[in-house]
Task: structure prediction
Amino acid sequence: MSLVNLGHVCSHLQNVSKARLGFTSVPSSNLIHQLMLSLQASGFVSYVVRGGLEPPVMLSPTSIEPETPPEPVTQANVASRRLWLGMKYWNNQPVLSKMSLISKPTRRTWMDIHGLGQLARGKDANYVKGMRQPGECIFLSTDRGVMELRECVERKVGGMLLCRVL
Result:
């Protein structure tokens, strides 16, 4: 699991939302794919599609299913695989306005259920600021996959803090 690549993805998505682009691509890895699916479930991106270097052909701008099936992953094309994301905007403002890493490549931050409960209530825990703004989400990597902070508190699961999304 490379947090360096995740840091590049966070800054890329932040720049894409500032530039008001409709869709973009990020490198494909298992961690990034799970995080993008969690962002989609939380409502920050409209669709996540696996593809190659070229964007998938869509039926219409509102369709989330590609017109052609995605190309299969082989040993020859595994390095060039991309995740294509549809960005969301509401009242001409980006839904995803800020995305930043919490765990750094040199300092990974792990938290148990007690610390996660404090973060969910807006209190600081272990040098991490609590969630104080409406619509703010913190994503964690757990043994059950990538989850949002509130879901981890409900399921009583701790893990490594990945990123904060506003």
Q: What stands out?
A: The helical segments are 3-19, 30-42, 113-120, 149-155.
